[in-house]
Write a structure and sequence with these properties.
- This protein is α+β, with helices and mostly antiparallel strands and 140 residues long.
- The protein contains four helices and four strands, in the order αααββαββ.
- β1 and β2 form a beta hairpin.
- α1 runs antiparallel to α3.
Length: 140
């Protein structure tokens, strides 16, 4: 695209030089100055497009790195469920996860995310954290 535009500007500049309008008439001087401005704008636009492409590549690489980082962080969180208890809702069978610290030495009410049944867990200090998968805990 830029090559074609440069050829067009060069062609018009050649016509201006051939007609010798540049030095003899004010209109020729104005047209020559406009051609110089167009040439400068082409150069500036070409540089901006080049920088844009560089920035686009840089953003894509950052996005890939961020995706990798998210996978690492969220996968680690999923594997680090040692302090979670899994309670099975008696109504719908949905697994409800809760932090072991939240239910230790106190009574807690949980809301099943599936059927909205209120689940009450009393004094879970004697319960073990869920290290394996799904445990059915005492519900009152």
């Amino acid at each position: 695209m830029y090559d074609r535009l440069r050829r067009e500007v060069s062609y018009v500049q050649g016509l201006m030089e051939g007609a010798n309008q540049e030095s003899s008439h004010p209109e020729g001087k104005a047209i020559q100055r406009l051609l110089d401005i167009v040439d400068e704008l082409l150069e500036a636009n070409e540089q901006l497009e080049h920088r844009f492409l560089e920035l686009e590549e840089y953003v894509e690489s950052i996005d890939e790195d961020l995706n990798d980082m998210e996978l690492l962080v969220y996968d680690d969180e999923d594997d680090d469920d040692e302090d979670d208890l899994c309670i099975v809702c008696p109504e719908c069978g949905e697994d409800v996860h809760v932090d072991y610290e939240d239910v230790a030495d106190s009574e807690i009410e949980l809301l099943c995310p599936e059927c909205h049944t209120v689940l009450i867990v009393e004094d879970a200090s004697d319960l073990e954290p869920d290290n394996s998968g799904v445990d059915e805990e005492r519900l009152d």
